[in-house]
Design brief:
This protein is mostly helical and 312 residues long. Among the domains are: 98 residues, Alpha Horseshoe (Serine Threonine Protein Phosphatase 5, Tetratricopeptide repeat), CATH 1.25.40; 72 residues, Tetratricopeptide repeat domain (Serine Threonine Protein Phosphatase 5, Tetratricopeptide repeat, Alpha Horseshoe). The protein has 15 helices and 3 strands. The protein has a 3-stranded antiparallel sheet with strand order 2-1-3, with no helix packed on it. Helix 3 packs antiparallel against helix 4, helix 4 runs antiparallel to helix 5 and helix 6 runs antiparallel to helix 7. The termini are far apart.
Amino acid sequence: MDRAIRIHQNLLARSHLTVVQLHQVHLELARDFIAAGLYDRAEQLLRDLSDESPDLNATAQRHLLEVFEAQREWSEAVVTAENLIALSLSEDPLAAGHGQSVHQLRCHYLCEQAETAITAQDSSSARQYYHDALRDNGNDLRARMGLANASLLEGSSKEALGHFEVIMASGRTCTPELLDLLSRICADQAGEGAYSAVLQRYYEQQPAPLLALTLAAELEAEKDRAAADHFLRLTLADNPSVAVAAALLLSGLPEENDQPERRILEQLTQNKQGYACDHCGFTGQSRHWRCPGCRHWDSIHYLGAVPQDAHV
């Protein structure tokens, strides 16, 4: 890396370079500085390049986003994303298309600002950031979850449920953190059975094994094991699942049974698979909005409880 920096700095000292070549060397040197973690130096080069080279303006600002992300300067990142969006509309249609959509990036930068505001107990600012994040996609999962959490903090479970209803209808896969959010929302609702009622509607929209097992557990708590088993058998007819079948087999085993088959069946019904990045394959047991491996935003998705569901 040091050698690459020296080479590009030596090239800048050459007097015969054309303006185009000079700008290209500036860009490569800025990339070197980013790779070396010298963000202040990279930022200055990229700002100068953005001002001086119309042809490399969009590219320079895209790299500025990398600098601001690395330093968690979210307000600067939002401003730069806005510049790129405006540039794509007026001059350079490719400005919003290098890598991930700049609209998607702006959404996550605003959500980062909202989470900072929540940490500072500024729910009003957090709400504004989340609503701004929904400008391009009203179904955005992160912003909707954030608004639901902000509503809960302000004691408005009805409003939080409204945001969760949007998530349910969006088609995004149900995950353990979504069920945790729904449980907290329903805990503040008046009357018994609120959680199971919403779970039932959720399952009708998305018959996933995780939802089936969660709803069965609620039915057992509210009624009995027979009601839970009856529901699970009904789900297997239309939506075959290894996890659901394992839960039914477990139900038939005596409580004192400690044989290997019980342990295997229990593993099949637990959330062990975690999450994986669609872009680079990074895996983990929790969701990251920005992949630690490839740095893509919202590319990590829930794998489910078992490696593969049954197909009949």
